[in-house]
Amino acid sequence: MALKGLMADPLEASSYFHPSGGAVYAPLREKVVAQATAMGYDVPTMTEHGVVWADDQDPFGHVGGATYIHLLFKCNFRLFESFAKTLKHKYEGLFRATEVGVMTKTYATDLKRQVTYPDCLLIAPRIMEVKPDRYFCVTSIWSYRQQAIVAETSGYVVFFDFQKGKVANLLDYGGVYADLHADLLERSKISAALNDKWMKDNPKLARKNQGPKL
User: pTM for the full model?
Assistant: First the structure.
């Protein structure tokens, strides 16, 4: 792949691996993070990944499908970790899957654009719908170089009582579990309001992010 402009130097093109994050990527990172934030994505759980030549690409020189799935689950695990502040002493049971925990029920992935090395990706989740026993989440991956969403996964995560072997209704369990339900509901409302505003203010960008290039 030919490198262009400021990324004509191969070392500079992979500078996202440097502890500084790479000066050439700073403005690209800032724009993507600002856009994702404005779109209602969950800022504290955003995750970054620098594409690795040998590990992330398929034989055709593109980031492979398995890599996208790995990154999406990597980010969503950070989302689970954000539950600790609300669950408090009960978080250990979720983390160890010994009490009420989480389980991915369904997910579908839309690969919108090809990604090649070198590039750095932002992965961010957005909670869209919350029910007493599950929530629906969309997790998107942005390319810093393309300044666009390149992949997106949506699906349900279910709360599951691993002791009883059944789906857990957080409101029935009460206490910190009911608090978690309330927290997720509030986060989904804030996300929806931000996303609605962004869609109205940026119709052209909305089409760019939603329209698959593949």
Answer: 0.91
